[in-house]
Amino acid sequence: MSLTTLGLELPTDPRWVDIASMNIGEILVDHAWCEQKAASSCISLIVMYTHKVELVEVLTPIVAEEWGHFQRVLKELRKRNIPLGRQRKDDYVNELRSRVRRSIGDQHEQMMDNLLINALIEARSCERFKLLSEHIADESLRTFYRELMISEAGHYRTFIELAETYLPASRVRERWKEFLAVEADIMATMAVRGDRMH
Question: In which domain, by residue range, is 185 found?
Fold first, then answer.
């Protein structure tokens, strides 16, 4: 697998971007919470694996970057007089996280699963940001989503590279292929919703 490509097995249903375009306020709200959860997820990894020096060093600036994205989405909401509202349930992420192996003896394998789940979320977010950057009418939001698309692609690669720091690349690639298949299955069974980023 090339780290320069997303590698997702199932593209987003083309109907999603049209529906999302008509509900851009809802998308921005959901996006804000996605960025908050991305920052929190990186903090959780740091707390879980505080003894992994490279992981802590690599993820710390990503926490700041994801929080910066959260602030940027809040700014877009304020420009449109849209309240943040309550945090939303993310069925996509919950489904992915339910597939992480819970009881395995090898801590590195568990850590790999957690890193690859984060890589998948970033990859799907990147793909959706690309769609928004190409298809929504609001020119400023098109630019906004293009910038974030580039950032998410970098995070996606970082999570995979971190996994390969602690496990053989061949093992990471094998597990990544398994997760890609799982993610495709999840995407195939989820309803197309214009009020959710995923």
Answer: 14-189
Placement of tokens 């919470």 in the chain: 33
CATH of the domain at 23: 1.20.1260.10
Q: Which residue has the tokens 């690639």?
A: 173
Which residues 6+ apart lie within 8 Å of 51 measured at CB? none
Task: Kindly give, in sequence order, each residue whose CB lies less than 8 Å from that of residue 117, ignoring residues fewer than 6 positions away.
Answer: 96, 97, 99, 100, 179
* Closest to 128 in 3D by CA, of 183, 76, 196: 196
Rounded CA-CA distance 119/37 in Å is 14
Q: Return the number of other C-beta atoms located less than 10 Å from residue 67's C-beta.
A: 17
Asked whether residue 5 is assigned to any structural domain, the reply reads no
Domain count, the chain: 1
Q: Where are the alpha helices (DSSP H) in the chain?
A: 15-22, 24-48, 53-79, 91-98, 107-135, 139-166, 169-189
Whole-model pTM: value is 0.92
Asked if the structure places residue 181 within a domain, the reply is yes
**Residue 1 included in any domain:** no
In a domain? residue 116? yes
Q: How confident is the chain (198 residues) per 10-residue block, as mean pLDDT?
A: 63 92 95 96 97 97 97 97 91 88 78 95 94 94 94 92 96 95 94 91
Q: What percent of the chain has pLDDT over 70?
A: 96
Of the candidates 94, 96, 89, the one whose C-alpha atom is nearest the C-alpha of residue 116 is: 96
